[in-house]
Amino acid sequence: MTIVLLYGGKSGEHEISLISATAIARHIDTGAHQLKLVGITKSGRWFLQGDDELVRVLRDKEAVLQVHEDAALEVTVIPAGGKNGAFKVGENRIPADVVIPALHGTFSEDGTVQGLLEMADVPYVGCGVVASAVAMDKEKTKVILEHAGIPVVPSVCIRRSDLAFADRYDALLEEAQKKLGFPLFVKPCSAGSSDGASRADDMRHLNGAIVEAFEWDDKILIEKAINARELECSVTGNPTTANGSHTIEETVVYGPGEIAPSHEFYDYDAKYNDPKGAELMIPAKIDAATRETIRNLAVQAYKAIDASGLSRVDFFVDKESGKIYLNEINTFPGFTAISMFPKLCENEGLSFAVLIEMLMQQALFRFKATRNLRTER
Questions:
Q1: Longest Cα pair distance anywhere in the chain, in angstroms?
Q2: E strand or H helix at 55, and its extent?
Q3: CA distance 12 to 68
Q4: Which residues lie across from 88 on neighbouring strands?
Q5: What is the mean pLDDT of the chain?
Q6: 191 FRET partner, CA 20 to 30 A, in 103, 140, 201, 376?
Q7: Is the pTM of this model over 0.85?
Q8: How much is the pLDDT for 16?
Q9: CB count in 10 Å sphere of residue 320
Q10: Long-range contacts of the stretch 196-199 (C-beta < 8 A, 24+)
Q11: Rounded to an integer, what distance in angstroms lies between the CA atom of residue 57 and that of residue 78?
């Protein structure tokens, strides 16, 4: 089977994608599969990488994949090209039995790349267009989860258009203060890895946090700051298309594990730059009832957004009241050496290599099911 691994991307999480893709590449059985690397630059251009790039990271365990630009190897995507013709380099085609879009953030896991792969008519690992787009938009995720009866962190949404009307903007700030109270968290609705997110303890800090968040998105959330433990579950499966004939498609939850950040909150540096930025506790030290509740909510949320393949579902547990809130859903979570998603799976007996193989098989089954649907009268 020929696998195309996409990485990089026009995203604030470009560098994280490089690390995730490197880990994935090292856990693919290159004896059984042929792996093709396609790197996406920060400007959004796609380039086929030479075989030497894969050899480099396989030989050097400290190396990280890079995106090398060569005009002769620029990749174009052909609508309806299928597995033998979707990706073109010059006059040549790159076969793709399955694509692994190891991409994080905007223009990556937000439904845009997924839509492109759907149009190209190739199987790909992970959530489809709707689930990817919904999960990237934190406000819309809250709407869907609340409708499903899943508790979420109280918030107020502000759109860039609100800034043009002083009365409207002031009313939203007043609503946030009265409804939520300080301290508050401000975050872009559609950014990942805590990009643009900050804590505000008073009005002066709130205004600064809003300015910062609007640099990343046209819509932001102001959320109640909860003194909480941060717990996460991994979920795999194809709950929408599974028909019972393939056990590999069954929805399975792993965890939860707990993240104990050493920083003020679990920000970008704590996640990726500081090796001591957080302690990962697997499994989380919680009672059986809380564990079961969180696992059930994770599956419920996964199904509510029509997720497929994989997602990491993140929770807050209030340290004082014990109340559980679903924080967010990550449709292509990090696969770095310190990432929670593969670690949770491994803790329950699913090794990294077997996990990747399973996700590819799930992608093939989902692709087959969706291509059996009628598209014309």
A1: 64
A2: helix 51-59
A3: 18
A4: 76, 93
A5: 94
A6: 201
A7: yes
A8: 95
A9: 8
A10: 197/265, 197/267, 199/225, 199/264, 199/265
A11: 29
